[in-house]
C-alpha cells in the first residue's frame, strides 16, 4: 500500500523518534509499504516519521544515482546495489572535510538546497531481521544515510541552511505545509484548510 507522505510543518517531522522492539506489530508489512511509498515518489530514502510514525526506521535505495555518468563504473555498481533497511540506528562517528550536495526531501517537494555534511559515517543498526551491524559508509551513500538519520532525530535539511537561505525559502515552506503545491505522489498536509 502506498502511504501518504507527511509534508513539512507536521510536528512528527520535528520529533526525535524512538527505538522499536523485534515484536513491533506487522513490521514486514510496514517495511514493504514504506518501500512502495518511496519508489512511487522516486525517492532514494524514506524515514518512518515521513509516514507519520515517530519510530527509528529508515530505508535507503541509491540505485537511481547509478545512472549518473559522473561516477566510475565501480561507484555506479555500488550505488546500483545499495538497498538497506536501518532500524534503531545510531551514528557513532562522522569524519572528513564537509562537502556540499544539493539535497531534496519527499516531505519538502520542489525545494532543493546545498547542504554541507562530512563525507564518512559510522553507523550501528539492526536490519529487518534484527541482526546487528556496524558499518562505515562514504560518499553519496553516507549522504543519504545522514539525511535519513536526521529524520529520525527530528531534523530536516532545511534546518541546516544559513539564516539567509531559510528566510528566502520561508514562504515556499509555508505553502507546502498548507498543501499549496502540486505533487505527483500522495501527501498529507498539516495546515491544509478542510473543504466544506
Ligand atoms: Ni527527507
Oligomer: single chain
User: What is the 3D form?
Assistant: globular
Share in β-strands:
25-35%
Mean pLDDT across every amino acid position: 96
Care to describe what's here?
This protein is of the alpha+beta class. It contains four helices and nine strands. 26% of the residues lie in helices and 25% in strands. The strands form three sheets. Strands 2-3-4-7-8 form a five-stranded antiparallel β-sheet, with helices on both faces. Strands 1-9 form a two-stranded parallel sheet. The mean pLDDT is 96. Bound molecules: nickel (II) ion. The site of nickel (II) ion has 5 residues, from helix 3. Nickel (II) ion binds next to helix 3.
Provide a concise account of the structure shown.
The chain has 196 residues and is an alpha+beta fold.
Primary descriptors:
196 residues, five-stranded antiparallel beta sheet, 4 helices, 9 strands, globular, binds nickel (II) ion
Which helices and strands appear, and what pairs or packs with what?
Elements: E1 5-6, H1 27-40, E2 45-47, E3 57-61, H2 73-80, E4 83-95, E5 99-103, E6 113-117, E7 120-126, E8 132-138, H3 139-152, H4 163-177, E9 187-188
Parallel strand pairs: 1-9
Antiparallel strand pairs: 2-3, 3-4, 4-7, 5-6, 7-8
The chain binds nickel (II) ion.
